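User: Quick sanity check before I run a bigger batch. Here is a single chain. Can you write out its predicted 3D structure?
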Amino acid sequence: MTGAVLDSVEAIPDEAALRETIRRRVEAAGTSFYWAMRMLPRERRDGMYAVYAFCREVDDIADDWPEAERPAGLAAWRDEIEAVYAGKSRHLIARALEAPVTRFALRKCDFHGIIDGMEMDAAAAIRAPDLATLDLYCARVAGAVGHLSVHVFGDPGEAAHQVADALGRALQLTNILRDLAEDAERGRLYLPRELLDRHGIRSDDPAAVLRHPALPAVCRDLAALAIQHFDAASAAMTRASRRAMRPAAVMGAFYRAMLDALVEAGWRDPAARVSLSKSRKLWLVLRHGLI
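Assistant: Done. Predicted structure follows.
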């Protein structure tokens, strides 16, 4: 795959077909995101699908493109975001973003913030960043997504943006704790330097850190930080629109349950995949999305 994908428009005959194409892409991913967004009205759901598809697109560039091509691919997306706001987009996903950008007053800076985060991954393999760098990374790759999301959900108020900040960080830290082995295969280690030092791990080699007997203690400390962010998000949620923020509540419930499962497993085998069953996800949707 190369940056040439941004140079042509896929042949989609009309807007309905465009929405259907994006929907199929998102639903094929089979993620918790899909479960949480199903409760939205169609226009808002289509808006979130377009945002999600954009995030997947730039994430794929940062993760899967040849290293030398990643900067150009992400730069092309910066230009494409500018084109979205000018009503002149060319890429399929950018075209899908045009309507929600206008309808829900999505902020251009948040799209650029997401790309900023992907550039942190694309520039070099992140290994044992300090806590401040890790927090910046989480704010860009997850918090910025949250800021776009609350506009689509229908609550662009201050409290909802506080939810976005806190919940984005909580979700991203949970992802980091879930994907230790997968990230290590890419040469990445997101566990922060301060926590590694606290438990006597001096290396920043991902494979060596994952074999270290103190790894579970480091992960428990990072999980405690994630819980602080989950708690902050819950507090802010009480000041936001309960109805509008139901998808955020469901996502928060999914990821908090995932974090609890990771803590219970104890990171004894970092390669072991921890996931939620469909029945568990359905219960959480009913508990946090409909009641």
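Residues 125-291 form a domain with the Farnesyl Diphosphate Synthase fold (CATH 1.10.600.10).

User: Great, the batch can go ahead then.
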